[in-house]
Amino acid sequence: MDLPTFTHDEFNVFHIEGLEPRMEAIREKIQPKFKALGEPLAEELSDLTGNDMFLHIAKHARRKTNPPTDTWLAVAHDNRGYKKHPHFQVGLFDDHLFIWLAFIYELPNKKEIAQQLLDRQDELEKLPGHYAVSLDHTKKNARTLEAMGSEELHKSLVRFRDVKKGEFLIGQQIARDNPVLENEDKLFSTIMDTFKRVQPFYKQTTQLHT
């Protein structure tokens, strides 16, 4: 399996000025790697979840002026789209790669999903302490479970449930200088290990969702 790695070339795309020049670089440098990574991920996730899973690559089609500060691939059980479903993400900001199980604000039954996660907070807390939580997929400022503690995690889940634009993403962030990004096998296994650890929450919330 010919898997991609990520170098400073890909991360530096986000320092290119202007919407079209940056988008051109995303299309040329990053999206082919997302396709090469995402297709085997979708196959592995199909086996892991027991559902047919489909690759989606962010197009940033709604952007008219501001260039994207990050970009990603998503894998979901719906081949028409992913934003209205719990889904898996891998993507880049300029300083790190992220690996998420993502619940974003477009979920139609977000309150019920959030309550399911609240009911299983103790299981979330058993994930590795370096795993991170993001409350906004457009921002970098995720916090590790270890740094958050039980009380902050609880508040984050309540916010996800009660705030219309509230989101909850859980997984890992890997700094751009981490050598794992340069080793195709280690990177793929790190991504899949992360997805395996968070998959029970995906399975539960997808059953609720569907």
From TrEMBL:
A Pfam family the protein falls into: DUF1054
Highest taxon of source: Bacteria
InterPro entries xref list: UPF0637, UPF0637_domain_sf
Family note: Belongs to the UPF0637 family.
The protein's name in its UniProt record: UPF0637 protein HUG15_15230
